[in-house]
Write a structure and sequence with these properties.
single chain; seven-stranded antiparallel beta sheet; about 500 residues; Jelly Rolls; 1 helix; mainly beta; about 5% helix; eight-stranded antiparallel beta sheet; 39 strands; Tachylectin-2, Chain A
């Protein structure tokens, strides 16, 4: 009964603010989840310079750790990235960044695989969230692996770094942090370890906040990243940073619902009078393959007993009152790029271990293939929906192939390429390249390539010359697969190709 009442109280408050209760005031401005659509796992948020800045796991993609800016926590735009390329000490995926502003400068803690060893926590610094960022190397490496940093400042100004020891059954720890040396120092204090059935031997993604003399440690438990996922968010409480911590008997305080599944691993932002909010991730319930961990924002309320509830205890919200009174506007699911700027627009990305040679030149993208006879070079952009069409206007040089494709999940590319006046479908994956039968391309110096993707993963391919009608091209090995998450421009062979525009529409 205590748990039910605690969860019901903030829910009633949310409904009242939203104008749901009879006789209530006019509805307040609202926002809709997701606030960071697409695949943005383990999001972090920090307030700096009158705005909010967020980042998220980039995995094997570069630029590493995209940086987004917002003035209201619900409308975001990408303004940069933490790392343009992988630092020399790291080798592998990059995940779980945490942004913090300490002593007038920005720090970005992050997890990364290490050359010749288990993962470490690295740190980068910058004068402002938009950079320029400089990598400072590992901040904490421990036997077995160290991930999921959470920087925290105590009431007396002491800096701490929370982290997870990698491995099933291992817990969350805290160490003091030296700003001068940019290293964790001293003894590691164990805060919590997995003991509950719902945690499935995992406690990770710490987010510590001090509220009313208590230390509230939010953390994630369960499996985040493989179907079927079981992720959820829990909380523990202590009277000091080092503990001992007592877990909430109502855990998990946030679990999935009909709108979102497997929520968790976020950062708490304290807005003062407007309250606490958690920026975290979750999957849509129809994402059977767990391809997009999308960024969600939910309110945290502290009950009379000092324990928190998230989103009224009902699971992540579809819509809720806006934190700062500014209504959220759903961002477009598509995009258009005419390559008019001298540098690539924000949002383009590529595997950090295979950067493409692609640059805007005189209103077109010049893409050099570098002799790639097998798997194409490519650059890509996320598409946060499973049903979309992409059109690219291209020109190919002799001996080089230019293509338009869909990417994912994994390392799969499926699309259409133009080479020496002929078109053919292709599929590239870890087993190599498979190509369909070549057909003559419509005559013209520039062609429009079209790829249509449907929610079942099917792909249809078309081509047109100038303003002429589209002609369907046999999709062959590209026709079927799992639903993709990105659109890609590809280049294969020897020489340079051109792309004058690309447009993606949901």
């Amino acid at each position: 009964m205590r748990t039910l009442l605690r969860r019901a109280t903030p829910l009633i408050a949310i409904l009242a603010v939203g104008g749901v209760l009879p006789g209530s005031a006019p509805a307040a401005a609202t926002y809709a989840n997701p606030v960071l659509p697409g695949d943005h796992p383990d999001p972090t948020v920090v307030r700096a310079g009158g705005a909010f800045y967020a980042s998220a796991t980039s995995a094997s993609w570069a630029p590493i750790f995209p940086v987004f800016r917002s003035t209201d926590l619900v409308r975001w735009r990408q303004v940069g990235a933490v790392l343009a390329r992988a630092p020399r000490w790291a080798d592998g995926n990059f995940w779980a960044p945490e942004l913090v502003r300490w002593s007038g400068r920005m720090l970005a803690f992050y997890s990364a695989s290490r050359v010749g060893g288990p993962p470490c926590i690295g740190v980068a610094t910058a004068p402002s969230p938009e950079g320029p960022w400089r990598d400072r190397g590992p901040a904490l490496c421990r036997p077995g692996g160290t991930i999921d940093a959470d920087p925290f400042t105590d009431a007396d100004g002491t800096r701490w770094l929370l982290f997870k020891r990698l491995g099933a059954g291992r817990g969350i720890y805290a160490m003091r942090f030296s700003e001068r040396g940019l290293r964790a120092v001293g003894r590691a204090h164990e805060l919590v370890r997995p003991t509950a059935r719902w945690e499935h031997a995992v406690t990770e993604g710490p987010a510590l906040v001090r509220r009313g003399g208590s230390y509230l440690l939010f953390y994630a438990g369960g499996h985040c990243c493989r179907p079927p996922c079981s992720y959820a968010e829990g909380v523990a409480r202590a009277s000091s940073v080092g503990g001992p911590y007592k877990k909430d008997s109502a855990n998990p305080v946030m679990a999935g619902n009909a709108a979102w599944k497997c929520p968790g691993h976020g950062t708490v932002v304290d807005l003062g009078a407007p309250g606490l909010f958690l920026l975290h991730h979750g999957y849509r319930p129809d994402d059977a393959l767990d391809r997009r961990r999308t960024g969600l924002l939910d309110r945290i309320d502290i009950g009379p007993d000092g324990w928190p509830t998230i989103a009224g205890g009902a699971g992540p919200a579809l819509a809720a009152p806006a934190p700062l009174g500014t209504a959220g506007v759903p961002p477009p699911a598509g995009f258009t790029d005419g390559f008019a700027r001298p540098v690539l627009a924000r949002g383009w990305e590529w595997p950090f271990f295979a950067p493409p040679d692609a640059h805007p030149v005189n209103g077109a993208l010049r893409f050099a293939c570098r002799g790639t006879a097998g798997r194409p070079s490519f650059l890509a952009r996320q598409v946060p929906t499973d049903a979309f069409s992409a059109v690219a206007t291209v020109a190919a040089a002799r001996g080089a192939a230019v293509g338009l494709a869909v990417h994912g999940p994994g390392r799969v590319l499926r699309g259409l390429e133009l080479r020496d006046g002929r078109l053919r479908a292709f599929r590239a994956d870890d087993r190599g390249l498979r190509a369909g039968a070549a057909v003559p391309a419509p005559p013209g110096a520039r062609l429009r390539l079209l790829v249509n993707a449907t929610p079942d993963g099917a792909v249809a391919l078309y081509a047109a010359a100038g303003g002429g009608p589209f002609v369907r091209i046999p999709a062959g090995p590209a026709s079927t697969g799992s639903p993709p998450t990105r659109v890609a421009l590809t280049c294969r062979g020897t020489g340079a190709v051109g792309v004058t525009s690309v447009r993606v529409a949901a």
